Amino acid sequence: MTVAGFTFNAFSENTYLLIDEATRQCAIVDPGCYTPAEQQALREYVEYNNLQVVLLLNTHAHIDHVLGNQFVLSTWPGTPFLLHSLDLPTLRAVPTYAGNYGFPQYQPDEPTGELVAGQPVHIGETELEVRFTPGHAPGHVVFYHAPTATVIGGDVLFQRSIGRTDLPGGDHATLLHSIETELMTLPDATTVHPGHGPATTIGEERRGNPFLI
């Protein structure tokens, strides 16, 4: 599996493509593309690299991570859309405030299936482990690929920081517990691709993240 990343929208949100090299199938995780230029960049990457989009995955459903859901589903019809069931209220709340955040053209979509901790997600020959990591959002999950020591982490753990917990459904103690039990138990060499900012490693955050000391 290889990971391709884009940074989209006013929140500088990281959108990821998880690519199974054997089959050229890919999953799009947290599409934040909103403007026509952002949407074009994502579509052109998929087309130029001859990828087949087979999954749309949301780590959680805050607005900056779901702005491009409708674009993905309309551009690649029939793509399964998976979200943890506990984050459905988060997703369904987005239309009530999207305009206030400067995204009046946001169009909602409903998941076609759900993510469940311990039930793997498959992209071609690639198998992802789903880990339940609430605290930033009630139904937050991360995706772990052991063979490449890779985590797609959403807004749980950042370089020298952690996700905010002052939004509805957030809880600081819960977030710290999620990090300690679901991320800090991984090998130090594991790369974390977060929802904002640069990639980091478990070891780097274990040694130097001020929120975890």
From TrEMBL:
| Cofactor (UniProt) | Zn(2+)
Q: Which InterPro entries would you find in this protein's record?
A: MBL_Glyoxalase_II (IPR051453), Metallo-B-lactamas (IPR001279), RibonucZ/Hydroxyglut_hydro (IPR036866)
Compositional bias segments (type: Basic and acidic residues): 203-213
Would I find Isomerase among this entry's keywords?
no
Give the Gene3D superfamilies listed for this entry: Ribonuclease Z/Hydroxyacylglutathione hydrolase-like (3.60.15.10)
Q: Does the keyword Signal apply?
A: no
Q: Where is this region: Disordered?
A: 190-213
Organism domain of life:
Bacteria
- Annotated Metallo-beta-lactamase domain ranges read 12-196
Q: Which UniProt keywords apply?
A: Hydrolase, Metal-binding, Zinc
Q: What is this protein called?
A: Glyoxylase-like metal-dependent hydrolase (Beta-lactamase superfamily II)
Report the source organism: Hymenobacter artigasi
Taxonomic lineage is: Bacteria, Pseudomonadati, Bacteroidota, Cytophagia, Cytophagales
